[in-house]
Amino acid sequence: MSDTREPKQFVVSDRNLALELVRVTEAAALASSHWTGRGKKNDADGAAVEAMRIAFDTVAIDGTVVIGEGEMDEAPMLYIGEKVGAGGPAMDIAVDPLEGTNLCAKDMPNAITVVALAEKGNFLHAPDVYMDKIVVGPNLPDGVVDLEASIENNLRNVARAKNKPIEDIVLCTLDRERHEELIAKTREAGARVRLLSDGDVAAAIAACMDNSQVDIYAGSGGAPEGVLAAAAVRCVEGQMQGRLLFEDDAQRERAQKMNPGKDPDRKLGLHDMAAGSVLFSATGVTSGTLLRGIRRLPTHAVTHSLVMRSKSGTVRFIEGHHNFSTKTWTPQ
């Protein structure tokens, strides 16, 4: 009788990889923190990209960037298709080295560094277009929200499922002109609205966390950020739906080429965006709803990170203390 159990070394590798990812997001956060509040978002982003790319050289994977900084001719590092890692299992990588470059530059809440891993072929290859999104947390009935339902119906369903008056339901969305109708209808339904200037990955995750006081995330934001959010939502067994939004036929054709045989206009379920075994890590750059920001002290820096695995459902918050005298990077 053959033994069909999963090899033990794969399980150990999977666990180790989850913790190795923290070092990658920590490196990017530490590098970008030098630019916090200095008003130079491009310098902050560049520092995060370079530090994250170098950190990946120590991770035991054969990785391919599928959500990254752009095409090869647009980005010198972490471009779509770039190979990273020190060798190991074939993995697809989704990154946002600094989500919220403006937030970092202005020292506003919720700037984070983000990485997600999935087994090869399990991330949606999302072009740089908008995605309509809706997210709720775990322990709710399947289908409690639907992207095609009105926001009023979705809010009522969430309130009923959570056994809360609709007046206590909080919807989070980006503060954008395109969301004026969504915001108005949410308030007309009696619910509250929390507006963000940037950072919809952190906001989508917050909708899945009990201590965030966010019940639902909705609205349109970047499609690459939607895939990163889906990876995190998978890890905590939340619910998410999305749909790519196109400005012209060229964008639609690009999405079709990136995902052959798939209807680019289809409604995307959570597993359409992030399937299989998924690992996720984020580190705070500035303090926000999800994570504390970097604290830079005379001799060391303190980081606060979140790391999750879909296989186990484990959510870890990790505080790291980084000694300037022994760290391989040099504080500026």
TrEMBL record:
Family annotation (Pfam families): FBPase_glpX
Task: State whether keyword Glycoprotein applies.
Answer: no
Residues that, per the record, bind substrate: 99-101, 130, 176-178, 198-200, 222
Record's keyword terms, sorted: Carbohydrate metabolism, Hydrolase, Manganese, Metal-binding
UniProt KW Transcription keyword: no
- Swiss-Prot/TrEMBL cofactor(s): Mn(2+)
Any one Gene Ontology molecular-function term assigned to this protein's record: manganese ion binding
What protein name is recorded for this chain?
Fructose-1,6-bisphosphatase
